[in-house]
């Protein structure tokens, strides 16, 4: 009886945490300190983040992580779960500064997200693929959403950046 109650309590807490993580997906505290993610085993690392049209600071660029020096960015995928619906333009970008265009932007074919299409998109020509953005040292990662015209009332994308740190044997 006790174990059944304990399992129920754990299940309720887990569901509550899942709900919280979705609501606060990109709510990064001001002044947060990021260290480069580097596991000790030979494996693909990744950042998975949820970007909402109304995340705090998203129009100025939000820092969400850090890559080690000489990291190889293997792939970038975006799943636009809910279309971004600002009236004139919707632009979701990622980079190594608050400009957030060094990894992918809106101007490069096969390296931009179609914010008006609720689909999974694989960015095959992003400028940040390979070691281009990490060759000279560790870099911070930023994501940014800019819009024009009537302000957006919807928009959510899940972005996955898969990378391999420089841990050659």
Please, could you describe this protein's structure?
The chain is of the alpha+beta class. It has a single domain, classed as Sandwich (Jelly Rolls). The protein has one helix spanning 2-23, and strands at 45-52, 62-67, 72-82, 89-95, 120-122, 139-148, 156-164. The strands form 2 sheets. Strands 1-7-3-5 form a 4-stranded antiparallel β-sheet, with no helix packed on it. A 3-stranded antiparallel β-sheet has the order 2-6-4, with no helix packed on it. The longest helix is centred in the N-terminal third of the chain and has 22 residues, at 2-23. The chain is globular and about 50 Å long. The N and C termini lie far apart (52 Å). Residues 9-24 have low confidence and may be disordered.
Relative helix content: 10-25%
User: Radius of gyration in whole Å, from Cα?
Assistant: 18 Å
Strand order of the largest sheet: 1-7-3-5
The count of β-strands is 7
**What's the total helix number?**
1
CATH class: Mainly Beta
Flag low-confidence runs.
9-24
Number of domains: 1
Largest sheet: 4 strands, antiparallel
Please trace the helix and strand order, writing H or E for each element.
HEEEEEEE
Strand coverage percent: 25-35%
Helix/strand-derived class?
alpha+beta
Jot down its keywords:
169 residues; alpha+beta; Jelly Rolls; four-stranded antiparallel β-sheet; three-stranded antiparallel β-sheet; 1 helix; globular
């Amino acid at each position: 009886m006790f174990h059944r109650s304990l399992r129920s309590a754990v299940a309720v807490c887990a569901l509550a945490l899942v709900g919280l993580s979705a609501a606060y997906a990109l709510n990064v505290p001001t002044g947060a300190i990021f260290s480069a993610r580097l596991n000790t085993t030979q494996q693909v690392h990744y950042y998975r983040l949820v970007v909402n049209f109304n995340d705090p600071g998203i129009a100025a660029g939000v820092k969400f992580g850090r890559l080690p020096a000489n990291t190889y960015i293997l792939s970038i995928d975006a799943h636009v779960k809910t279309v971004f619906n600002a009236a004139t333009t919707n632009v979701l970008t990622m980079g190594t500064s608050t400009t957030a265009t060094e990894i992918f932007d809106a101007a490069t074919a096969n390296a931009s997200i179609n914010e008006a299409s609720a689909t999974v998109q694989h960015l095959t020509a992003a400028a940040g693929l390979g070691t281009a953005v990490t060759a000279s040292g560790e870099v911070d990662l930023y994501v940014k959403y800019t819009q024009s015209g009537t302000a957006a009332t919807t928009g959510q994308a899940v972005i996955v950046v898969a990378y391999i740190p420089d841990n050659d044997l």
